[in-house]
Structure formats: structure tokens, C-alpha cells
């Protein structure tokens, strides 16, 4: 048996709005759009992607899943994402090498610093 990882599902009050925000933030393409679902991927035939699915219930508590990103330039990427509408979030992380941000609906994600042993991509 083989499984193919297709999407990470993100519940959203506004799937199209949040999906467009992430598509622009990541430079990804829209692969599906309907009233209740909005999916993006790195390229039309490249997975996994993110699928935003309508959920009208308010979010309760901290997310159990978040995304981590490794940029070439952490400071520049954090500044770009904040200018794009992300906001800094304090989840009790203290002083760390990563920066915690939240998207327009409050979903946390991290922009990591490059680890010393990791070459630039």
C-alpha cells in the first residue's frame, strides 16, 4: 500500500481570502477554488499543498499544528510577511532563533533561522 501526501488542511472562516493570502506569501498557485474550499500548491502538479476549508465555528485554543519555513534571509522574510499582513505572536517561546508569526486568521507559523550545518538553498 502506498500513500501520497496531498494537502495540509487549514480550517478557515474565509477559505478564499486566507488561501489567496498564503498563495501570495508563498508564491504558490491556486489549484482548486469553490465556495467552501480553496487549495494552493507550489505548482499545479506538485504536492503537498495547503487546502483551506470553511469552518464557521470560532477557533478555540492554540493550534495543534503549525508550519515552519526556512528562508535564505530570516530578517528580510519576516519583514516581508509582516508587511503582507502577518503579525508577531508571543506563544511563550522566549528568546529563540525562530520568529513566530500569525496569518490574518491567527494561525501561527514559524520563520526559522538557518541552522549552522544547513547550506543555503
Structure write-up:
The chain has helices at 15-26, 74-83; strands at 7-12, 29-33, 37-41, 49-54, 67-69, 87-88, 99-102, 108-111. The chain has 121 residues and is of the alpha/beta class. It has a four-stranded mixed beta sheet, with helices on one face. The chain has a four-stranded mixed beta sheet with strand order 5-8-7-6, with helices on one face. A hairpin with a 3-residue loop joins strand 2 and strand 3 (37-41). The chain is globular, with a radius of gyration of 15 Å. The N and C termini lie far apart (33 Å).
Largest sheet: 4 strands, mixed
What count of helical segments does DSSP give? 2
Q: Give the terminus-to-terminus CA distance.
A: 33 Å
Percent of residues in helices comes to: 10-25%
What structural category characterises the helix and strand content?
A: alpha/beta
Beta-strand residue percentage: 25-35%
Order of helices and strands, N to C? EHEEEEHEEE
| DSSP strand count | 8
Summarize the structure.
By secondary structure, this protein is of the alpha/beta class.
Lay out the secondary structure.
Elements: E1 7-12, H1 15-26, E2 29-33, E3 37-41, E4 49-54, E5 67-69, H2 74-83, E6 87-88, E7 99-102, E8 108-111
Parallel strand pairs: 1-4, 5-8
Antiparallel strand pairs: 2-3, 3-4, 6-7, 7-8
Amino acid at each position: 500500500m502506498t500513500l501520497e501526501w496531498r494537502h495540509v488542511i487549514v480550517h478557515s472562516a474565509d477559505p478564499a481570502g486566507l488561501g489567496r493570502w498564503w498563495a501570495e506569501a508563498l508564491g504558490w498557485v491556486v489549484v482548486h477554488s469553490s465556495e467552501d474550499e480553496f487549495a494552493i500548491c507550489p505548482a499545479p502538479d506538485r504536492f503537498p499543498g495547503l487546502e483551506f476549508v470553511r469552518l464557521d465555528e470560532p477557533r478555540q485554543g492554540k493550534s495543534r499544528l503549525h508550519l515552519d519555513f526556512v528562508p535564505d534571509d530570516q530578517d528580510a522574510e519576516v519583514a516581508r510577511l509582516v508587511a503582507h499582513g502577518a503579525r508577531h505572536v508571543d506563544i511563550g517561546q522566549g528568546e529563540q532563533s525562530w520568529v513566530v508569526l500569525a496569518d490574518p486568521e491567527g494561525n501561527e507559523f514559524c520563520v526559522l533561522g538557518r541552522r549552522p550545518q544547513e547550506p543555503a538553498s
